[in-house]
Amino acid sequence: MSVNYGSKRIVVGAHYGLRDWLSQRITGALMALFTIILLAQLVFSRGPIGYDLWAGIFAAQWMKVLTFSVIVALLYHVWVGMRDVWMDYVQPVAIRLVLQVFTIVWLVGCAGWAIQVLWKI
Fold it and tell me: Which residues are listed for a ubiquinone binding in this entry (predicted)?
C-alpha cells in the first residue's frame, strides 16, 4: 500500500532556480573583485584623489573593458533580481509584464549611458 503524506504540490513558475542562483553569485563575485581592484588602485596611488587620478585609472583599455564587463554583470544581476521580485510579488500578469518591460528598457538605457561614459561616444 502506498501512502502519500501532505498535499500534492503544484509547481508553477519559470524554474530558473539554480541558474539564477549561480549567476547571482558569479556576477556578485565579479563586482566584488572589481571593487577590490579599484580600491587597491586608490589606496596605492600618490597625490590627491581628484579628476586626474580617476581619469588615469580608467584611461587604460583593460580597465575600460573590465569596467564595462562589470557593468554588464551588474545589469544582469539587477535583471535577475528584479524579474524574481516581479514574478513573486506582482500577481496581475499585465502589470508584471509592464514592470518587466520597463525594467528591461531602463537597464538597456543604463548600458547605453555606461558606454558613453567609458568611451566618450
Answer: 89
Q: Cα–Cα distances in Å, from 106 out to 31, 32, 109?
A: 20, 23, 5
- How high is the mean pLDDT in each 10-residue block of the chain (121 residues)? 65 71 95 96 90 90 92 95 94 95 96 87 50
Residues annotated in the binding site for a ubiquinone, as ranges? Answer: 89
Query: What is the spatial distance between Cα 73 and Cα 120, in angstroms, rounded to a whole number?
Result: 21
Q: Which residue positions form the known binding site?
A: 77, 89
Question: Does residue 92 contact residue 68 with C-beta atoms inside 8 Å?
Answer: no
Q: How many CA atoms lie within 13 A of 94 on its CB side?
A: 0
Phi, psi torsion values for 77, nearest 5 degrees: -60, -45
